[in-house]
Design a protein that fits this description.
By secondary structure, this protein is an alpha+beta fold. Among the domains are: 135-220, Calcium-transporting ATPase, cytoplasmic transduction domain A, CATH 2.70.150; 309-339 and 463-579, 3-Layer(aba) Sandwich (Rossmann fold), CATH 3.40.50.1000; 340-461, 3-Layer(aba) Sandwich (Calcium-transporting ATPase, cytoplasmic domain N), CATH 3.40.1110. The chain has 24 helices and 22 strands. The protein starts with a helix and ends in a 6-residue tail after the last helix.
């Protein structure tokens, strides 16, 4: 249930939406009362619609006029609407007042959409802030005290218990653990950290307690820099928006200047009476108002957005539906985007005298007692086999695990660890090298002093990735690159298999953002596709940020402009195709709208059009353009 205080807060946070909705209601009831002959009530409701829907536009237009000495479409809309209202009162044609209120409603809706974009930015920042710890366990004089993170200073010592977030960037002084750094690097494989290693705020500690030394102020931590980068990138006005704003102001200046000249010159140059001049000037204000031009774009984009939603493509605003079709370069995050983000057994290779199920069975018996994600992948792969957990299991962090299974000592781990008790086969060594060069992680399995075999673990590629990239190239995408926090060898292996143009590996979030900026300098319109918190700055900087709907983090979903709700990369092709189709329709509509406005203006100057016909022509062209835009609802 929403209580009054909650409703008040919602209204305050969404005042532009409330104003547009209320304007629409007042306009609807004003029109209805006019139809049934209640003129007095209509003349109260319709002006109220003007005030509610046009207040913000009038305020912005007057502010721009007096502070920046510029005219914009907001002020032109108010002038045209008031002109229609004045003419309606003058000739008692109250339907003209309805026309003016409709014009105001269109612009009120546009303002509400802009307000939504600003609130989305604020939600992105709040989501990022939730990843940071508020307090830290500071160690001082052998005592542990819970302190606010913002009070920590360089050199302070901090204790982080298993399962806790790292409160600030630091260097490990004591302890060993496995950290989930997905919030920073986006990689699904937890990273082993020991004495001397750097850890980042916002990452999740695994099974071991850590004692850290703060090596930089908390406000300079990596996660705080990510927050600032997202905020900066989202508030920068893209060149296309700047062009639109300049066009609107130029259009407004031309119409206002033409309106003034139309009032002043005809009596002297054409011999018109002042009554005829004012009448023609008011018709000019009505037919030259940008309703048809507005309708040429927004209904088309909204239809495209609805079409995309049916296909599992969520466009957060119409501008991004436009831009995705203009993209010339695309940057993919690796883990969780090109891959599924979950390690799994890629291949089992048995040594002579052993079978592959035997290797998997023994490894699973030990790894069932391990907390390592590679162990989880091995256990999952052995679900169909008959095995029991090993006993006397002892883990050696960063190396492997040893235990007893069927009364024999069993060792599972990396090559160096297993080679301490077992002679490795040269054949298997060469096989392991090939697998590692291909980006796989190799786990050795030994029983007693005999090597049983190898298990290769890898992050599985998403289905149809290669086909999707080929289709993107067919659409004319010039550059397709991969950005990843993973190592160079693994990244290059995947890039070669997919035929990518460029690979950027070992990247932190700010590195990804810098890559996007460099790509924009060369290709102008660049799309970034990611799923993690670490991708948020790059998603915000990109011309079009695209997030994976299922695998994506909350911050990535908030920051991105487009969300692939089903995590299917092949939807990218449909998004680009839909965008280009919408742009064709928009261009057709603009040509039609401008042509019809020009026709009405010529008819007005020729004296062959009355105000009712001008309004009918103006509104009729708007309706036709709107219906044209609705074509995108099909298919």
């Amino acid at each position: 249930m929403l209580y009054p205080s909650r409703l008040t807060q919602l209204a305050k946070n969404h005042a532009d939406v409330v104003a547009a909705a209320l304007c629409g209601v007042l306009l609807l009831f004003g029109w209805f009362t006019l139809q049934i002959g209640w003129v007095g009530l209509a003349l109260l409701l319709l002006p109220a619609a003007y005030v509610v829907g046009g207040y913000e536009s009038a305020r912005e237009g007057l502010t721009t006029l007096f502070q920046e000495k510029e005219l914009d479409v907001d002020l032109l809309m108010i002038v045209a609407a008031l002109g229609a209202a004045g003419l309606g009162l003058w000739q008692r044609e109250y339907s003209f007042i309805v026309d003016g209120a409709t014009l105001i409603l269109i612009f009120a809706i546009s303002g509400a959409l802009e307000g939504y974009a600003m609130r989305r930015t604020e939600r992105s920042i709040r989501s990022l802030m939730s990843l940071t710890a508020d307090t830290a366990r500071e160690l001082r004089d052998g005592q542990e005290a819970l302190m606010p993170v913002n009070t920590l200073q360089v050199g302070d010592r901090v204790l982080v218990r298993p399962g806790e977030l790292i409160p600030t960037d630091g260097v490990i002084q004591e302890g060993y653990s496995t950290l989930n750094e997905a919030a920073i690097t986006g990689e699904s494989m937890p990273v082993e950290k020991a004495i001397g290693d750097t850890v980042f705020a916002g990452t999740l500690n695994g099974h071991g307690a850590l004692k850290l030394t703060v090596h930089q102020p908390p406000e300079s931590s990596l996660i705080q820099r990510v927050i600032r980068l997202v905020e900066q990138a989202q508030t920068e006005t893209p060149p296309s928006q700047q062009f639109i704003e300049r066009f609107e102001r130029g259009y407004a200046k031309v119409i206002v200047l033409a309106g003034i000249l139309l009032v002043l010159l005809p009596p002297f140059l054409l011999g018109w009476s002042w009554e005829t001049t004012i009448y023609r000037a008011l018709i000019f204000l009505v037919v030259a108002s940008p309703c048809a031009l507005v309708a040429a774009t927004m209904p088309t984009l909204l239809s495209g957005i609805a079409n995309g939603a049916r296909q599992g493509i969520l466009f957060k605003n119409g501008a991004q539906l436009e831009l995705i079709g203009q993209v010339r370069a695309i940057a993919f995050d690796k883990t969780g985007t090109l891959t599924l983000g979950q390690p799994e057994v890629y291949k089992v290779i048995a040594a002579d005298s052993y079978a592959e199920p035997d290797v998997l069975e023994v490894a699973a018996a030990l790894e069932s007692s391990s907390e390592h994600p590679l162990g989880d992948a091995i256990v999952q792969a052995a679900q169909g086999l008959q095995w029991t957990a090993a006993t006397d299991v002892q883990a050696f962090p960063g190396k492997g695990i040893v235990g007893t299974y069927h009364q024999q000592t069993v060792t599972v781990g990396n090559a160096n660890f297993v080679s301490q008790t077992t002679q490795l086969s040269q054949t298997l060594i060469e096989t392991a090298q090939v697998l590692e060069q291909d980006g796989k992680t190799v786990v050795w399995v030994a029983q007693g002093q005999q090597v049983m075999g190898l298990i290769a673990v890898a992050d599985r590629m998403r289905p149809q990735v290669a086909e999707t990239i080929a289709r993107l190239r067919a659409l004319g995408i010039e550059q397709i690159v991969m950005l990843t926090g993973d190592n160079e060898r693994t990244a290059q292996s995947m890039a070669q298999s997919l035929g990518l143009d460029q690979v950027y590996a070992n990247l932190l979030p700010e590195d990804k953002l810098h890559v996007i900026k460099r790509l924009q300098q060369q290709y102008q319109h660049v799309a970034m596709i990611g799923d993690g918190i670490n991708d948020a700055p790059a998603l915000a900087q990109a011309s079009v940020g695209i997030a994976m709907g299922i695998a994506g983090s909350d911050v990535a979903l908030e920051t991105a402009d487009i969300v692939l709700m089903s995590d299917r990369l092949e939807k990218l092709e449909q998004a680009i195709t839909l965008s280009r189709r919408s742009q064709r329709v928009v261009k057709q509509n603009i040509v039609f709208a401008l042509g019809f406005i020009l026709l009405l203006l010529l008819a007005n100057f020729g004296g062959n059009i009355t105000l009712p016909l001008g309004v009918i022509g103006h509104e009729g062209s708007t309706v036709l353009v709107t219906l044209s835009g609705l074509r995108l609802l099909k298919g």
